[in-house]
């Protein structure tokens, strides 16, 4: 019997709750696999007694028989990966014999992170060196020296790896005329010490390295079922997203069959994940944002201690903000109530209403077969505002012309105005609802409208962050 693969991806700007959906449906699969991105991702798993945020390791960790695969399309920060592995194991979860990392993944090196902090500000990157690492992967070599150091190379040839780390570091500093920083990746060490350390530490990953590029193919052809776990989201795709305010990998479903090391002949279905109240971290267009440009600016100031969860919680009266006539205030209140702060960077996430133009568009881009909608419980907060109902975007308007797709360029995306429709308020506390039948009529109406406009059946509804706060729809 042949196995198959399903692909799960985010349909908005990331942070849609992909990790929790995977955790809920993982029992149907034997393997969860990442196919792109790296430690920029923050997939949160919340059980009743613990919360784990995963950055590089696939989200199937809580299912003891599940294999976890990191495909060649990913970029890895070996130090962060080791820490993450340690944290998972400290929670009593065994990864031995389960975690397999392709030896063809690209290693994120100190100069990538340095460069990201230097040139990534305008985009608002996560400063993890993702863009520079993918750029070096595409460059391959600078004519003389290796640029794409892969995990297998790092482990097999430590001397070459050290040279690669140092050469690239010195060249970057010289090329950009930078002052050599005192701190290398947050530590007061010389780059030579850091290179030694990276090479030495990487040896501890030896037993997790997958040396067979056909590993996944062999398992699936033998009957195993794999769930590909997308990272970031469709709007952050390096080519299809809001360029340049995107990540540097392909995040859409098709890339699972490049970065995930499996041929597309095993594809069964595509699963999309979206949030009922949207968010975005970093800069770039966001048509349905509460407070528009002002919110983008406000959140961009929110690095470090400013505008973080603690700061906003202390500073604002939520009830008052909700009653405000200013949409920026409503956005701030919804962020506090929805705890929308970056899982990786702790930055405040920009908040917006559900954009049904985007949802329908991205369901088509990815060929979504079924949909999961998270944070539906948070829609209740709209009933405490002076708005006419739950706002959703039905169309975009550019220069007086209405359109039903996402414009291809960032300029047009910035110019697009949301055409808003109001759906009836939901007043029921949804967090304790376990069955679809028990949802109030307004919540059911909301779900039905999303299904009709996206053209996809909703198979699951998130009504809280915890594992059990999830309604499966048959
Ligand atoms: P990078 O991937 O760190 O280069 O960041 C590029 C853009 O993608 C920035 O706007 C980030 O905030 C955003 N981004 C990257 N990873 C994620 C994610 O996992 N969730 C949400 N946004 C992300």
Number of helices: 16
Largest sheet: 10 strands, mixed
Q: Which ligands appear in the coordinates?
A: inosinic acid
Uncertain runs with pLDDT below 50, 5 residues or more? none
Sequence of strands across the biggest β-sheet: 9-7-5-2-10-1-11-14-18-19
The radius of gyration over CA amounts to: 22 Å
Distance between the termini: 26 Å
**Structural shape:** globular
Give the helix level as a range of percent: 25-40%
Number of strands: 19
Mean pLDDT: 94
Helix/strand-derived class?
alpha/beta
Query: How much strand?
Result: 15-25%
Short description:
The chain is α/β, with parallel strands linked by helices and 474 residues long. The chain has helices at residues 18-25, 78-90, 110-119, 130-139, 151-156, 158-175, 191-202, 215-221, 256-259, 292-300, 309-315, 318-322, 327-337, 356-366, 410-415, 441-454, and strands at 4-10, 31-34, 43-46, 51-54, 67-70, 75-76, 99-102, 106-107, 209-210, 225-229, 267-275, 277-280, 350-355, 370-374, 390-398, 401-403, 417-423, 457-462, 470-472. It is 32% helix and 19% strand.
Describe the structure.
This protein has 16 helices and 19 strands. It has helices spanning 18-25, 78-90, 110-119, 130-139, 151-156, 158-175, 191-202, 215-221, 256-259, 292-300, 309-315, 318-322, 327-337, 356-366, 410-415, 441-454; strands at residues 4-10, 31-34, 43-46, 51-54, 67-70, 75-76, 99-102, 106-107, 209-210, 225-229, 267-275, 277-280, 350-355, 370-374, 390-398, 401-403, 417-423, 457-462, 470-472. The mean pLDDT is 94. Residues 14-15, 40-42, 123-126, 128, 130-131, 231-232, 236, 245, 247-248, 281-282 line the site of inosinic acid (IMP).
């Amino acid at each position: 019997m042949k196995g198959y693969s399903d692909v799960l991806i985010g349909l908005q700007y990331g942070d849609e709750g992909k990790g929790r959906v995977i955790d809920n449906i993982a029992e149907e699969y034997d393997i969860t696999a990442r196919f792109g991105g790296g430690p920029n991702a923050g997939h949160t798993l919340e059980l009743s007694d613990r919360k784990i945020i995963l950055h590089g390791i696939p989200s199937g960790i809580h299912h003891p028989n599940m294999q976890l695969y990191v495909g060649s399309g990913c970029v890895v920060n070996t130090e962060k990966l080791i820490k993450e592995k340690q944290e998972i194991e400290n929670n009593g979860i065994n990864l031995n014999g389960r975690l397999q990392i392709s030896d063809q993944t690209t290693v994120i090196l100190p100069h990538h992170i340095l460069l990201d902090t230097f040139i990534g500000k305008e985009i608002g990157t996560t400063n993890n060196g993702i863009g520079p690492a993918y750029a070096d992967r595409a460059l391959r070599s600078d004519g003389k020296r290796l640029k794409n150091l892969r995990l297998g190379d790092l482990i097999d040839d430590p001397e070459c790896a050290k040279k690669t780390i140092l050469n690239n570091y010195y060249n970057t500093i010289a090329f950009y005329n930078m002052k050599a920083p005192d701190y290398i990746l947050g530590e007061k060490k010389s780059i030579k010490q850091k290179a030694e350390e990276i090479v030495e530490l990487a040896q501890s990953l030896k037993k997790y390295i997958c040396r067979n590029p056909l590993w996944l193919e062999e398992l699936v052809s033998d009957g195993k079922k794999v769930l590909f776990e997308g990272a970031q989201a469709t709007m952050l795709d390096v080519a299809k997203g809001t360029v340049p305010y995107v990540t540097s990998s392909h995040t859409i479903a098709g890339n699972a069959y490049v970065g995930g090391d499996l041929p597309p002949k095993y594809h069964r279905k595509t699963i999309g994940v979206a949030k009922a109240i949207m968010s975005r971290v970093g800069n770039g267009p966001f048509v349905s944002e509460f407070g528009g440009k002002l919110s983008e600016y406000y959140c961009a100031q929110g690095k470090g201690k400013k505008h973080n969860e603690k700061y906003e919680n202390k500073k604002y009266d939520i009830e008052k903000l909700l009653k405000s006539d200013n949409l920026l205030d409503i956005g701030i209140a919804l962020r506090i109530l929805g705890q929308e702060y970056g899982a990786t960077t702790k930055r405040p996430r920009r908040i917006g209403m559900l954009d049904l133009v985007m949802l329908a568009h991205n369901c088509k881009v990815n060929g979504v077969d079924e949909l999961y909608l998270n944070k539906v419980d948070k829609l209740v907060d709209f009933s405490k505002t002076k708005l006419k109902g739950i706002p959703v975007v039905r169309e975009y308007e550019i220069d007086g012309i209405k359109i039903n797709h996402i414009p291809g360029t960032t300029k047009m995306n910035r110019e697009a105005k949301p055409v808003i429709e109001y759906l009836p308020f939901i007043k029921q506390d949804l967090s304790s609802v376990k069955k679809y039948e028990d949802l109030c009529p307004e919540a059911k109406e909301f779900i039905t409208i999303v299904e009709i406009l996206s053209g996809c059946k909703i198979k699951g509804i998130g009504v809280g962050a915890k594992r059990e706060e999830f309604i499966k729809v048959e």
